[in-house]
Amino acid sequence: MYTAIKGVYENGVLTFIETPPSIKKSQVVVLFMDESQQDQSMEEQPQKGVVLGSLANRGYNIPDNFNDPLEDFNDYM
């Protein structure tokens, strides 16, 4: 199994940006990318989809009976 994590190598020191998995011993492969690729990959990517809480206080309400069983499924219960 391969696991990839991000890090930065600078002046002979490798600093992990992400936490490596808890493995007692493992072989590793280090891939050095040129700076143009590194700058693009280190930038945070914008989140896609709906962010939790993003619709709060915007007039959207969940009805009180949202989690109630649907009448259409009464025959199956």
> What's the helix-strand series?
EEH
The count of strands amounts to 2
Total helical elements: 1
Structural class: little secondary structure
Strand portion: 5-15%
Q: Estimate the global geometry from the Cα principal axes.
A: elongated
Largest sheet: 2 strands, antiparallel
Given as residue ranges, the uncertain stretches (5+ residues, pLDDT < 50) are none
Helical content (DSSP H or I, runs of 4+): 10-25%
Question: Which strand order spans the largest sheet, edge to edge or round the barrel?
Answer: 1-2
Tell me the Rg in angstroms.
Answer: 24 Å
Distance between the termini: 44 Å
Mean pLDDT rating: 79
Protein name: DUF2281 domain-containing protein
Explain what you see.
This protein has 77 residues and is low in regular secondary structure. Helices cover 10% and strands 10% of the residues. The protein is built from one helix and two strands, in the order ββα. It has a two-stranded antiparallel ribbon with strand order 1-2. Strand 1 and strand 2 form a beta hairpin. The model has no long low-confidence stretch (mean pLDDT 79). This is DUF2281 domain-containing protein.
Key terms:
single chain; 77 residues; little secondary structure; two-stranded antiparallel ribbon; 2 strands; 10% helix; elongated; DUF2281 domain-containing protein
Write the layout of secondary structure elements.
Layout: E1 7-10, E2 13-16, H1 35-42
Antiparallel strand pairs: 1-2
Short description:
This is DUF2281 domain-containing protein. This protein has 77 residues and is low in regular secondary structure.
